[in-house]
From TrEMBL:
This is Urea ABC transporter ATP-binding protein. InterPro entries: AAA+_ATPase, ABC_AA/LPS_Transport, ABC_transporter-like_ATP-bd, ABC_transporter-like_CS, P-loop_NTPase. One of its GO terms (molecular function) is ATP binding. The lineage of its organism: Archaea, Methanobacteriati, Methanobacteriota, Stenosarchaea group, Halobacteria. Keywords: ATP-binding, Nucleotide-binding, Transport. The keyword Transferase does not apply. Signal peptide: none annotated. Residues 1-20 are annotated as: Disordered.
Length: 259
């Protein structure tokens, strides 16, 4: 069968996301089941190079499962994931990181006994030589307005500072695609605005593409180039934030409005 021929799969990956395409990521018929439950239902999803895409939908729509399939934390039941000209479907998570995919999870995963400097050293060790570590650490902490907290442990940081440190750790891996799962959950209005500005600056200056899961529709409106709405594991609709916000069907499933 053609689908089992690695040459065919490689060619398809190149066609979908290689030099001949502006897409950095493409999923095809991506499907994930847990027992008899379908969490992701044959999803075709694409992200352009340098795009900031937001992924929204009600709880249980399959958003986090979808990101975990992209990072390799979960193995798909069926379907393919193409990234930067490669079929990454069979690759383990660490190889996807090496190819430029980084993720900040919804629940903070900082090392509580380590300082901000030491937390950053963990991802930086994959990227820079030992003699570059201090310089790059300070650059990242300054970029994320955390240089004054370089020797503080996470317990001494505010929730907003912890979120920024986690994004800095993801950025330390020098990704071309970053996945963020609810990066402003629990943040104040001011902190949310700071994260929005930070993501837009990274996108503009470094060309990083983002997929961002978020429930804060005002934040989504501030940052998104395009929005994808997931419902019951499938793509319900995609488009600009204006199109999505004014779609009555989206308002029913996402905002819980009555018919």
């Amino acid at each position: 069968m053609a689908a089992s021929d690695p040459t065919v799969k490689t060619t398809r990956a190149v066609d979908e996301t290689g030099e001949r395409s502006s897409r950095i990521l493409q999923t095809r018929d991506l499907h994930k089941e847990f027992g008899g439950l379908t969490a992701t239902d044959t999803v075709d999803f694409a992200v352009e190079e340098g795009e900031l895409r937001c992924l929204i939908g009600p709880n249980g729509a399959g958003k986090s499962t979808f990101l975990n399939l992209i990072t390799g934390q979960l193995e798909p039941t069926a379907g393919s994931i193409y990234y930067d000209g490669i079929d990454i479907t069979p690759l383990p998570s660490h190889e996807r990181v090496d190819r430029g995919i980084s993720m900040k999870f919804q629940v903070p995963t900082l090392y509580e006994d380590l300082t901000a400097r030491q937390n950053l050293r963990i991802p930086l060790q994959r990227i820079v030589d030992a003699d570059e570590f201090e310089t790059r650490t300070r650059e990242l902490l300054a970029q994320f307005d955390l240089l004054a907290e370089i020797d503080e442990t996470p317990a001494a940081l505010s929730h907003g500072q912890q979120q920024r440190l986690e994004i800095a750790m993801a950025m330390a891996l020098e990704p071309t695609l970053m996945l963020l799962d609810e990066p402003v959950a629990g943040l104040s209005v001011e902190e949310t605005a700071e994260v929005a500005e930070l993501l837009r600056t990274i996108q503009a200056e470094e060309g990083v593409a983002f997929i961002v899961i978020e429930h804060d529709i005002d934040f989504v409106e501030t940052i998104a180039d395009r929005v994808t709405v997931l419902d019951q594991g499938s793509i319900f609709t995609e488009g600009t934030i204006e199109k999505v916000k004014t779609d009555p069907a989206v308002r029913r499933i996402y905002l819980g409005e009555e018919r």
